[in-house]
Amino acid sequence: MRSPEFWREKPGLVAGLLAPVGAAWDIAGRLRRAVARPYRAPVPVICVGNLVAGGSGKTPVVLSVAAMLPGAHAVTRGYGGSLAGPVRVTAAHTASEVGDEALLLAARLPSWVARDRAAGIRAAAEAGATAILTDDGFQNPTFAKDRSLVVIDAGFAFGNRRVIPAGPLRERIEPGLARADAIVLVGDGPEPEGLSRAGRPILRAALVPVSAELAGKRVVAFAGIGRPEKFFDTLRGIGAEIVAAHDFPDHHPYRPAELAALRAEAARREALLVTTAKDQARLDAEQRAGIAVLEVEIAWRDPAALRDALAL
Asked: Which H or E run includes 27?
């Protein structure tokens, strides 16, 4: 889906009209958490989630934390995929089966797709995981969490601070942050209002390019992620010259005609066609030919603070 523009702005007429629906959404979520009987895994479960719909940098955070936990497995819902799971992701799977995020995770550590998160966690534990990282699922009450990291995009923060559909919030800010063990603030933007009052450690981090090989290159950039503008800003930050930028909805399945049009534009402008690793995961081997990828990773301002937050 593509998030509506009014989610980014100060609450206006549309947000006000939808506020009662958002209140009902929030009440339903609180009731679900109150009556749930969560599954308790025999190994530590670390949830990397957020409070808003759309991208905030959860998957890169999961990959970074996984590097600190040998033997860890990842569990994700597999958004956009057809398989309900639990299923362990392999190189034979496609994004249409398991989703793009699952493929990114599986390239680095054992990973599972499960719409029933508790079942996926159980399967990972039975397969020998020494710890389990969930990509999203902070609002999911069906499994117990030993640690919860709430990831916040410093550039977007909480949008208009209203609950879905009036705004991007999956739940109200204060009770959500109260359940977190630490807050991961990604980006160089100012600290969002009220964050310090939550009384939780705030871990500053940034999404940084793995290499600067696109510096000085003319590029036609395209992305179907939660916040495409972050990708475009990162390209500009390394010195790439963006001659055209195209944003698509998050998890967008690219049609051959769309890719052909992008290739034609890049050729016409004598530029390199470039996208994100998440978008590349949704392309088959033939479609990937001639498309550069900007790889990014999480850089922590204080890695020791992260280790302290994860102490189990």
From this structure: helix 13-35
The answer to whether the CB of 291 falls within 8 A of the CB of 254 is no
Compute the C-alpha angle 56/58/62, nearest 5°.
160
pLDDT in tens, 296-307: 999 999 999 999
Structure tokens at 293: 């990828």
- CA 162 → CA 140, 304, 309, distances in Å? 20, 34, 28
Q: What is the pLDDT of residues 129-177, one digit of tens each?
A: 999 999 999 999 999 999 999 999 988 889 899 999 998 999 999 999 9
The sign one gets for the Cα dihedral 223, 227, 231, 233 is: positive
In the chain, beta strands by DSSP E: 45-49, 72-76, 87-88, 111-113, 131-135, 147-153, 182-186, 202-209, 218-223, 241-247, 272-276, 291-294, 296-300
pLDDT digits over 261-298, tens only?
A: 999 999 999 999 999 999 999 998 889 999 999 999 99
